[in-house]
């Protein structure tokens, strides 16, 4: 396997990791705000903050990690996406900045403040929406290169149903992933009142997820035939995804095995996400950047892979420690520590 | 004067960095102080020090949050504002950037654990051990990111072929000639600033609310560190000047207004220039520049005349350099004065004027860091990668950068204000004495509960 293939696989895996942890975080922010708004915050907000407080920074690093990795392995991406995304990218940066800092202000500061919580909840939906634009752009047709200048065709972007369906999918998935995780966390904490509320959220957001996913898939077929066909060739991955979704739904509906239900949700997104990614291969930006054409020099590629393996050897035990202390320690989850 | 997109790009990045460096410096400097305080607290069984570690951590986490988000901003701006730079240099600097993220990842994980496990371990040293990955992670992320800055000043580890960097050796690029002196100076100044800030807070509180045991201990401990790192930082400054004299003479010459190559060069302090580049009203220290640059009063120091005029850094850097060095010495002198009072028993080291001077250390230290970075960045102009790529070749061509400048300005104003407001609220109504009492009471209750359950 060549280093650029290892690179893109690893990065895609990291992006998947970010998708899951960030969705939990983003969605939890929204639910925390929504619960305060509807005066149900006494039920779930303590639970949410017990989970989020120790991990929010880690979530943020996942994102920077993916970004630095892709620029490192494929420097051309910086040139094309950097030029094209200066405005939407800056908006995402500002939203991330507001979110991260206001989380800390709300949580570690002494006084609770509904404005902070609103900013935190609202950005939780806007960030995935703005980040998902990058996925839309990679389909081609929106980034235009004329001579030496690269620019973004905003009109084409805003009038295209594909971009809106991807934005919708991003928001709905965030809410679905997050609520199914929080249901699991609440069941671990044996917090029945919270569980009842969150399970309702999860069931509510499940159907829209699958409907919007299908819609986006159909629009993808109209916009980028090649990508669509490649994904159809991977039909078994998509079928697996639907199957995992069904299992998760069944478990949630019957109100048992919330841990398994969340694993099924993770697998549902894993299979769909990889079907999407493998279908897009070899393009990173259709038609300008492919994995092979933009890869950095072999020396740098190898250095990055080596660092990556070394880094994982340090990170995985540390992450396991975090999980052990905050996720699988029943007393902590229940709020006794 | 019309400002073009290149200038706006410089302004956006300069502003982001000027804001970020405050929090980045805290992020590197303060963890060490927390680790030292917690260690002494366990060692001496003195709850005051433990409380210091707790309170500092609580304030620190707020600044970390702002540091994280502004750090994310600057990393994305590298590609958004300087796409051509990233395209070209990305092939060489990806490794340190990647390593930096790993180091920070490591730090973030352990910071999360550290914050929420104060009373979870029976052996207090286990909790203290968690500070080690935090201190190392913070330190290493500073090291890695500084190698990138070193590369921009002293590019190496590649062959230039048809406008592209080829035959890249990323490790050699990281170990460029600028790396050692820069890393040394960045770390020593960050630890100095962390200690100066915490000492200044203790002094400031004692000025307003009178002397207390907690603040006295904090002040004494931090002044020791101000002295130690003040000395190290002076050494690092000297190493940096000697590095510049040898490898990047135009940067030193611009900072010293040293136009003609000569032996036994004078050191020029402050002053100003007339239209003919003649120096007026400056203090001349004969032959000192030669001594500072090469450790020899008669050594030859290269002047700006040897470089084409369009490659001169802006001559304004002279003031940045002089003020930065002045701040460094001022901090050292204040620390020495404090210990003079401490050892000279007749004098009270906590007298009003001494405390005022120490309180001044915090703004001074941050000013020094800002001046130093502005000197480092402006002194490299007109290059973004010295000798290979000019700043104007690297910038974005998008006119939206002008609006973005104001949007980011607003963001930083909001973040900065909120950060101050939240920190004040966190500490103003919660003095350490009150917190100490509460904490002791809790402890007593817990031990009573335990006593009952074993009975």
Automatic annotation (TrEMBL), chain A:
Protein name in UniProt: Cytochrome d ubiquinol oxidase subunit II
Pfam families: Cyt_bd_oxida_II
Keyword Membrane: yes
Recorded topology in the membrane: Multi-pass membrane protein
Transmembrane segments: 6-34, 55-74, 80-102, 114-135, 162-186, 198-222, 234-253, 260-279, 299-327
Family: Belongs to the cytochrome ubiquinol oxidase subunit 2 family.
Protein keywords: Cell membrane, Membrane, Transmembrane, Transmembrane helix
Cellular compartment(s): Cell membrane
Keyword DNA-binding: no
UniProtKB/TrEMBL annotation, chain B:
Pfam family, one: Cyt_bd_oxida_I
InterPro entries according to UniProt: Cyt-d_ubiquinol_oxidase_su_1 (IPR002585)
Entry keyword Transmembrane helix: yes
Alphabetical keyword list: Cell membrane, Electron transport, Heme, Iron, Membrane, Metal-binding, Transmembrane, Transmembrane helix, Transport
Transmembrane segments: 17-40, 60-81, 93-116, 128-152, 183-207, 219-236, 316-341, 353-376, 403-423
Membrane topology: Multi-pass membrane protein
Places the protein is found: Cell membrane
Protein family according to the UniProt entry: Belongs to the cytochrome ubiquinol oxidase subunit 1 family.
Protein name: Cytochrome ubiquinol oxidase subunit I
């Amino acid at each position: 396997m060549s280093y650029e293939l290892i690179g893109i696989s690893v990065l895609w895996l990291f992006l998947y990791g970010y998708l899951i942890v960030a969705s939990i975080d983003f969605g939890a922010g929204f639910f925390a705000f929504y619960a305060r708004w509807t005066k149900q915050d006494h039920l779930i907000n303590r639970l949410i903050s017990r989970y989020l407080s120790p991990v929010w920074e880690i979530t943020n690093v996942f994102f920077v990690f993916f970004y630095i990795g892709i620029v490192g392995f494929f420097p051309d991406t910086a040139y094309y996406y950097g030029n094209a995304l200066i405005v939407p990218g800056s908006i995402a940066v500002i939203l991330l900045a507001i979110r991260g800092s206001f989380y800390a202000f709300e949580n570690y500061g002494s006084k609770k403040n509904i404005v902070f919580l609103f900013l935190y909840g609202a950005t939780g939906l806007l960030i995935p929406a703005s980040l998902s634009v990058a996925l839309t752009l990679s389909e081609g047709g929106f980034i235009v290169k004329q001579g030496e200048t690269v620019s973004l065709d905003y009109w084409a972007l805003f009038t295209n149903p594909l971009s809106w369906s991807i934005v919708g999918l991003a928001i709905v998935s965030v809410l679905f992933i997050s609520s199914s995780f929080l249901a699991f966390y609440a069941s671990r904490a044996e917090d029945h009142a919270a569980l009842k509320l969150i399970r309702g959220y999860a069931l509510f957001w499940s159907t829209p997820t699958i409907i919007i996913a299908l819609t986006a898939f159909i629009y993808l077929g109209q916009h980028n035939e090649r990508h669509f066909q490649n994904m159809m060739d991977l039909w078994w991955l998509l079928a697996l995804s639907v199957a995992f979704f069904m299992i998760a739904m069944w478990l949630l509906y019957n109100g048992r095995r919330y841990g398994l239900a969340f694993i099924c949700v993770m697998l549902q997104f894993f299979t769909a996400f990889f079907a999407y990614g493998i279908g897009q291969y070899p393009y990173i930006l259709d038609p300008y950047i492919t994995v092979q054409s933009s890869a950095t020099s072999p020396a740098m590629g190898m250095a990055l892979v080596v660092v990556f393996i070394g880094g994982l050897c340090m990170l995985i035990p540390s992450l396991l420690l975090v999980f052990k202390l905050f996720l699988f320690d029943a007393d902590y989850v229940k709020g006794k520590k | 004067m019309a400002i073009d997109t290149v200038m706006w790009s410089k302004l956006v990045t300069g502003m982001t960095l000027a804001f970020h460096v405050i929090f980045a410096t805290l992020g590197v400097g303060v963890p060490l102080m927390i680790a030292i305080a917690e260690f002494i607290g366990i060692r001496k069984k003195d709850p005051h020090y433990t409380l210091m570690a707790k309170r500092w951590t609580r304030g620190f986490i707020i600044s970390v949050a702002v540091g994280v988000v502004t750090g994310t901003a600057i990393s994305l701006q590298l590609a958004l504002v300087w796409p051509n730079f990233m395209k070209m240099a990305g092939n060489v600097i990806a490794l340190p950037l990647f390593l930096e993220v790993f180091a920070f990842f490591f730090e973030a994980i352990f910071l999360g654990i550290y914050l929420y496990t104060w009373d979870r371990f029976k052996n207090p040293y286990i909790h203290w051990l968690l500070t080690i990955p935090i201190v190392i992670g913070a330190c290493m992320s500073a090291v890695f990111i500084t190698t990138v800055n070193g590369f921009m000043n002293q590019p190496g580890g590649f062959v230039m072929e048809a406008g592209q960097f080829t035959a890249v050796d990323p490790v050699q690029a990281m170990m460029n000639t600028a790396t050692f002196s820069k890393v040394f100076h960045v770390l020593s100044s960050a630890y100095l600033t962390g200690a100066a800030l915490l000492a200044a807070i203790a002094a400031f509180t004692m000025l307003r609310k009178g002397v207390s045991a907690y603040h006295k201990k904090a002040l004494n401990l931090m002044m020791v560190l101000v002295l130690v790192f003040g000395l190290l930082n002076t050494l690092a400054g000297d190493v940096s000047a000697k590095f510049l004299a040898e490898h990047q003479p135009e940067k030193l010459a611009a900072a010293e207004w040293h136009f003609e190559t000569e032996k036994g060069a004078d050191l020029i302090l402050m002053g100003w220039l007339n239209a003919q580049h003649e120096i007026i009203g400056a203090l001349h220290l004969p032959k000192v520049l030669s001594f500072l640059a090469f450790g020899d009063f008669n050594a030859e120091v290269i002047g700006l005349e040897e470089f084409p005029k369009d490659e001169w850094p802006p001559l304004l850097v002279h003031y940045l350099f002089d003020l930065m060095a002045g701040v460094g010495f001022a901090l050292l002198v204040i620390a020495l004065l404090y210990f003079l009072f401490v050892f000279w028993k007749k004098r009270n080291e906590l007298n009003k004027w001494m405390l005022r001077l120490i309180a001044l250390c915090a703004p001074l230290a941050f000013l020094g860091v800002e001046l130093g970075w502005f000197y480092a960045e402006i002194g490299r102009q007109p290059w973004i990668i010295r000798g290979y790529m000019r700043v104007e070749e690297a910038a974005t061509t998008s006119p939206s950068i002008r609006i973005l400048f104001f949007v980011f300005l607003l963001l930083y104003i909001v973040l900065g204000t909120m950060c101050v407001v939240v920190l004040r609220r966190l500490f103003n109504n919660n003095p350490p004495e009150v917190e100490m009492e509460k904490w002791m009471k809790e402890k007593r209750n817990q031990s009573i509960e335990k006593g009952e359950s074993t009975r």
